[in-house]
Design a protein that fits this description.
The protein is α+β, with helices and mostly antiparallel strands. The protein has 4 helices and 7 strands; from the N terminus they run H-H-H-E-E-E-E-H-E-E-E. The chain has a single domain, classed as PAS domain (Beta-Lactamase, 2-Layer Sandwich), CATH 3.30.450. The relative contact order is 0.17.
């Protein structure tokens, strides 16, 4: 019995650092707000074209942990997305829905137009994954532009 107890304790000790590392690999809401505001400031300082290049780069400064910034206009056109560049080739993304039929991009545009910033919850896969997960995305209207940026956190247990 004592041996089983010791094995259990050792197993737990070995698992704790892994759990902490996994938690550190998840973006926070605060990081999303900061990254979106940094991206908006860059759009105003470097221009939309240069900002779109950096935002759309999967190895760039706006991709971190399990999150990233994307850039859209108020007509629903995706300007830059580091993991789904095919979205930038569409006229707009307004007809795209999540697995629950929520028109997430319509919600993004409406929020950016009305409140200028806020959070939207929907289902979306993690970068380089296919299975949709619950996600909360911060939308931030770029001052002096008909553009907005977004970045989100995945909600719930870690599924890889």
């Amino acid at each position: 019995m004592k041996k089983i107890f010791m094995i259990t304790v050792l197993a737990l000790l070995f698992c704790l650092p892994v759990s902490r590392a996994s938690a550190n690999d998840s973006a926070t809401k605060e990081e999303c707000v900061v990254k979106c505001r940094e991206a908006a400031a860059m759009i105003n300082s470097k221009g939309v074209e240069r900002a779109a290049e950096l935002i759309g780069d999967p190895d760039g400064p706006f991709v971190w942990k399990d999150s990233y910034v994307f850039l859209m206009n108020l007509n629903g056109k995706m300007i830059a997305h580091p993991f789904k560049p095919e979205l930038t080739r569409k006229e707009h993304c307004l007809l795209i829905t999540d697995p629950t039929d929520k028109p997430l991009f319509v919600h993004f545009v409406n929020l950016a137009r009305s409140k200028k910033e806020g959070w939207v919850e929907y289902m979306w896969p993690k970068p380089l994954k296919n299975t949709p997960r619950k996600k909360q995305t911060y939308i931030y209207r770029v001052p002096d532009h008909d553009l907005f940026v977004g970045a989100g956190v995945y909600v719930g247990g870690m599924i890889y």
